[in-house]
Amino acid sequence: MDNIEKRLICPICLDYCKQAVECYKCINLFCKNCADSLTDKKCALCRESTEFHISNFARRAINELPVQCDYCSTSSTIGNLEAHLEKCKKKTITCQICDLKLTKSGFLDHISSNHLDKALHKAEIFNHILANKSIKTTESLNGALNGIHSIDTKINSKNKKKARLGETGKYYCGEQLDDFCSCCDGFCGTQSGCNCSGCMDLDIRFRLLPKGWLVNRDGFAARKSLQNGIIYCGRKNMIGVPGCDGYCGPNCGPNCSACQKLDEQVKRRYSKLV
Ligand SMILES: [Zn+2]
Ligand SMILES: [Zn+2]
Ligand SMILES: [Zn+2]
Ligand SMILES: [Zn+2]
Ligand SMILES: [Zn+2]
Ligand SMILES: [Zn+2]
Ligand SMILES: [Zn+2]
Ligand SMILES: [Zn+2]
């Protein structure tokens, strides 16, 4: 690996930078998510309080790097790998209930014939499916489980508007949010971000989440820890955060930025839902 390639590796997760950003002070590159996870915006390398700016140069360079598909050995580039994995016939998914490795086409059959009851009540499996880019939405799981295909529009029972699944797998109606949101433009969706309380209600009901669960703005099911009352989604998206084992919770420690927003919002917007 030459020096330029080494520079494209994120010093926090030690992988090529995803959505590369650079430290304004030392010009080192990080993943956007890894940089976002730094406390007080202190750079992990130069230790200065800093800003992180998008590096289009690094993003292009990384996208052009050659990679092989882990499953079928087809040659691709980092930029094209995701599109390849969507179609890759050999790609496997690990069943979170029994640890069996299955192809994407076999996965839904496997769930519906072996763990139908569990899948419908296990929030983690929805998280897993959403985390796994090959099955984009809970809708596709539900469709396969019930033999009903892609009824992706639901009616928001609060404002009676049509809501659709966005990229996060959450429902969005595009209407104004119930209250001010420190992270959004004030509207529900339409592809990502926070949703209104009526659409959150759809998220909960549609995913058959147990009482007390919500879905955070990244599309991950989350709930209050019984230990400290903080909301956690249990994702491993906090690598490099001081004092954290890399996971958001699930019972203690710091929570991810999406769950931090839920901590604020559950007091007002979603208070009736938990
Ligand atoms: Zn990183
Ligand atoms: Zn720096
Ligand atoms: Zn492949
Ligand atoms: Zn299984
Ligand atoms: Zn909405
Ligand atoms: Zn928001
Ligand atoms: Zn979280
Ligand atoms: Zn942790």
Automatic annotation (TrEMBL):
Keyword Metal-binding found: yes
Its source organism is: Brachionus calyciflorus
**Keywords linked to the UniProt accession:** Metal-binding, Zinc, Zinc-finger
- UniProt domain RING-type: residue ranges: 10-47
Fetch the PROSITE patterns from UniProt: ZF_RING_2
Matching entries from InterPro entries are given as:
Znf_RING, Znf_RING/FYVE/PHD
**Entry keyword annotation includes Membrane:** no
Q: What is the official name of this protein in its record?
A: RING-type domain-containing protein
User: Could you cite one Gene Ontology molecular function of this protein?
Assistant: zinc ion binding
